[in-house]
Fold:
Amino acid sequence: MGDSFWLYYVYLLPGEGFDRRHLLRRRLTRVTSDGADPLAGVSRLALGRFHNSALDDTWVTNVQVDPTYVDEGILGYLLSSPVDGTVEVTDCYIEAWDDHMVGAWGDCGGNRSLRRLGYALSADGPDRVPVYRCFDAAATNHFLSPDPDCEGSTTEWLLGYLLAE
Structure:
């Protein structure tokens, strides 16, 4: 373990003005590495899954979401910086469907890119969780899941691997 501290910052939800700002905090822990593990010195970002039942929309992100979304838990951890064997993961929004979607390699398929979420690992290894991009056609809802069968929805592809911790 290392030294922990809180980082406080102001956040605006996409499309909102400064009059709707939110004060957020994120706990950070500084760790030291002996250099043997190339991932040990890279910051990790929790990737959470949130659901809005009124919109039937699942939002997978690492930032504060609209309060109408219910927290379903953390899927795993992205890296904050690229290292060998990682892919960029982007938070996308399909306006026509009111659907939040995660894209790989910064590609939102012509839809709005909200932010870079971080970097997923492209290969399996110890303490890694696979995540699949899924699509529920009935709800026009994209989401990520560790289940290769996408919880009964359509599996689009293996997005990558998250760190378990």
Q: What stands out?
A: The mean pLDDT is 86. The two ends are 13 Å apart (CA to CA). Residues 45-163 form one domain.
